[in-house]
Design brief:
The chain has 125 residues and is mainly α. Helix content is 62%, strand content 0%. Helix 1 crosses helix 2, helix 3 packs antiparallel against helix 5 and helix 4 packs across helix 5. The radius of gyration is 18 Å and the shape is flat. It starts with 10 loop residues before the first helix and ends in a 6-residue tail after the last helix.
Length: 125
């Protein structure tokens, strides 16, 4: 299944995507899709279409332990440390913002899973 998205992207990003597409004899759409595939799996799979209460006990406990992947966590922490010592480039600021957003989403899912797991008596409150 595919879904058509309409995105507002800065001109310089479109130009960069076009350059990469030309270099690799690809369409811009494929470049953007590949980029999404390479960056979105920072958090192990979450089925956003299912309610936390619908999860099996096994899936619920797994979700209650969710974290960023090791590589994403390492990069996130490195950017946070660098930010404390010096100014980040615009690209690094965007990357840090991205990691922070993903971290927030993972933390939210983790908290909801922990509440449901405690409610079911699977973990101590």
């Amino acid at each position: 299944m595919t879904v058509q998205l309409t995105l507002n992207v800065p001109d310089e990003m479109v130009q960069l995507a076009q350059t990469v597409a030309e270099m690799h004899d690809m369409s811009v759409e494929n470049v953007v899709t590949n980029l999404l595939f390479s960056t979105l799996p920072l958090v192990p799979s979450i089925d956003a279409n299912r309610s936390i209460s619908e999860l099996s006990n096994t899936d619920l406990l797994a979700l209650s332990q969710i974290t960023l992947t090791a590589d994403a966590n390492k990069q996130h922490l490195a950017l946070l440390a660098k930010q404390q010592e010096e100014s980040l480039s615009v690209a690094e600021e965007r990357q840090l913002h991205w990691y922070s957003q993903i971290y927030s989403i993972a933390t939210l899912y983790k908290a909801k899973a922990m509440i449901e797991a405690a409610h079911r008596g699977l973990i101590d409150p």
